[in-house]
UniProtKB/TrEMBL annotation:
Signal peptide: none annotated. Keywords: 4Fe-4S, GTP-binding, Iron, Iron-sulfur, Lyase, Metal-binding, Molybdenum cofactor biosynthesis, Nucleotide-binding, S-adenosyl-L-methionine. Monomer and homodimer. It is an enzyme of class 4 (lyase). GTP binds at R19, R69, T100, K161, R264, L265, R266. Binds 2 [4Fe-4S] clusters. Binds 1 [4Fe-4S] cluster coordinated with 3 cysteines and an exchangeable S-adenosyl-L-methionine and 1 [4Fe-4S] cluster coordinated with 3 cysteines and the GTP-derived substrate. It comes from Schinkia azotoformans MEV2011. Belongs to the radical SAM superfamily. MoaA family. This is GTP 3',8-cyclase. Pfam families: Mob_synth_C, Radical_SAM.
Amino acid sequence: MNGRLNLVDRFGRNHDYLRISVTDRCNLRCHYCVPEGQHQCMDFPKLLTDEEIVQIVNVGAKLGIKKIRITGGEPLLRKNLPELISQIKSIPTIEDIALTTNGVFLKKYGKELKEAGLDRVNISLDSLDEKKFSYITRDGHLNDVLEGIQTSVELGFNPIKINVVLMKDFNVDEIEDFLLWTIREPINIRFIEYMPIGQTNNVWSNQYQSLEIVKEIAERIGQYNPVTTHKNSGPADQYAFENAKGTFGLIHPISCNFCDNCNRLRLTADGHLKPCLFWQDEVSLRQFIDNEQQLIHAFKKAMFIKPERHQMGDENFDFGNPTTRVMSAIGG
């Protein structure tokens, strides 16, 4: 089977990247990820087992999947995650496996994850202020995350990406602090546009902040330049200050979408394949776990139904549609 050409959608985009949500549970309750009263966690029997996930990845690998990202909820709440990562990494054609986490448990599990074969980490962190961090996460502790980031640096994960969702009335005043951090440490701060998933139009529009303000503040700090895109840098436009140890990036899912080059699929914790993060259509895989040909057909069906682009930013975008999964149930 020629894997390189089998996951191509109707618009000619080749897909080699699968994001896997291993749980929808989280130890934090960030406002934009788990909107108040909108999400009830799945019962454990509904979650894919390790064996089912590995089977799906095996089939995906035969179709050209080379990169895996483990997400949640908070993926480190899943028991024996290092063992699952080790099993996935043992699949010969899987070249890279990354983890998106809130960072709270990295100090505890970082070494074990590294030994299991984990290549990279993305850590969500929207504030460097203890009180604001506690507010946005509903009582999380900032120092737990900072210690997790330091552990990741010491273990040699590369690159280490810090995801910062920019919100107008919340953390715009911290942009300079995040940028200065990239000068001191070998990390990649990625500023991300606030996305209207599970939110009302009013909530989103009141908090949306253009990322152009990041460049304006960066110019006041000093000279910065575009940097060569790392193969795993994703959709971010990357920059670095002169003589900085790290970099910063801008991700514009709304104002400058990257749909033309989208190469990713998402597997939900209960076994549905989502061809687009911002689209309701899904393909169930769980019922075909024991039938490789049916799984292949399901992957290809996802390719067929994938839209050319998402509709965020359009006047008719359905903000907060109750049939749309909240972010914690998708995996981002």
